[in-house]
Amino acid sequence: MPTSVPCPTCQTTVEWSDKSPFKPFCSERCKLIDLGEWANEEKAIPGEPAVIPDQQPGNDEAY
C-alpha cells in the first residue's frame, strides 16, 4: 500500500510514488508557491544566523 502525505502548501493528499512527479507537493503550482515563500524569506530554518568572516557587520566592502 503506497504511503500518502499532505501537500505542504494546500494539504491535498499526495500518494508518495512514481505517479506523483512533484511529491511531496500535489502540483508544480504548489511547489513554486513554496519556493517563492523561501525566496521571500517568509520561511526559515530556526537557528542562529551563519556568520561569514568577510560579511561581518560594518564591513561594507563590495566584491
Automatic annotation (TrEMBL):
Cofactor(s) listed: Zn(2+)
Keyword Iron attached: no
Q: Where is this region: Disordered?
A: 44-63
Q: Give UniProt keywords alphabetically.
A: Metal-binding, Zinc
- Residues binding Zn(2+): C7, C10, C26, C30
Which function does this protein serve?
Inhibits all the catalytic activities of DNA gyrase by preventing its interaction with DNA. Acts by binding directly to the C-terminal domain of GyrB, which probably disrupts DNA binding by the gyrase.
Q: How does it assemble?
A: Interacts with GyrB.
What is the protein named? DNA gyrase inhibitor YacG
Q: Which organism is it from?
A: Idiomarina aquatica
